[in-house]
Design goal:
Blueprint lengths: L2 H5 L4 H8 L3 H10 L6 H14 L5 H8 L4 E7 L4 H16 L3 E7 L6 H10 L5 E6 L13 E7 L14 H11 L4 E6 L5 H17 L2 E7 L4 H9 L9 E4 L2 H13 L9 E3 L16 E4 L1 H17 L11 E4 L13
Parallel strand pairs: 1-2, 1-3, 3-4, 5-6, 5-7, 7-8
Antiparallel strand pairs: 9-10
Helix pairs in contact: 2-3, 2-4, 6-12, 8-9, 10-11
Keywords: DNA-binding, Transcription, Transcription regulation
GO molecular function: DNA-binding transcription factor activity; transcription cis-regulatory region binding
Protein name: DNA-binding LacI/PurR family transcriptional regulator
Length: 338
Amino acid sequence: MSKGAAAKRPTIMEVARLAGVSHQTVSRYLKFNGDGMKPATSERIRTAIEQLDYRPNLVARAMRNRRTGRLAMLLPAGTAVSALELLAGATAAAHEAGYVVEVVTLGGSPQTWAQRALELSDSGLFEGILSLTRMALPAQRPGSVPIVVSPDYDDRMRGVGELADASHMAEIVEGLAAYGHRRFLHVAGDYAHTSARQRRQVYLDTLRRLGLESHGVADCGWSAQAARQAVLDLPPGSGVTAVIGANDLVAAGAMRGAWERGWKVPEDLSVTGWDNNPVTAFLPPSLTTVDVDHERLGRRVLARLLAALRGEPAPQEDEPITRVIWRESTGPAPGRAR
């Protein structure tokens, strides 16, 4: 076989001839994945595509009708468990609207990311682009596809924006105060994360507002061992009856420290966490925590891109994506009636 023959891509017309259908029928099969077709027709087209190793030329399709059915989501390099759930929600919402989502990891320095987004916008491969990290973009250019920026992660994949919202920390403190708790310990996270800084600040602000006391803030850096040690180091008579964790991991460390001291949770010490790790519902006792609905956030940010594609105003949804789940690890302060 010559180089020219080897390089020649099979066409949709060849697929149609082999399957014994019109090229419009093949196009409809590709667009709707065979939905609504007679099974026999769909099977002939599928077989022809496999025999010819046919792959649609997405760039050519985009040049013809500016439709590719593809959306791009941009993320910084790094790992974040929350991103998997957020992407699941965004992908589901995109599929419901007739699109597929491709995730593009942004390499290089943050200063180059805007240029990368513009290149993707001009590529003709995507109908819309959603960036989940901050970038400074020029004004939208005529003819380019929409680029929507939803700053949910910083340049190192640490949650910001709604993901770092700590407002429910106030509800936790208020709920514990209603149980009679008056002196608290906060086992904090890594302050490189906006979420850790904000949870610490709301904790302190709420105690001040309610006239309650903080024994202190233990800087644990998301370490369960550090949280365990912070509880073991509490002096006799500290008066601490509640430990508020910056996440479920440090809360579990605090519970371990309480157990080693012979304290019962929640009879002697109430403990709370954050993130609603699935295992927390099965701990003995189950952990009071804050659930973060990452999938809902994914649907929400994807809705902003869909609105831009349709030329509509961005939808407004003010309901928080977080909620407190009260479980067995919290109860009345020692000496209070249960």
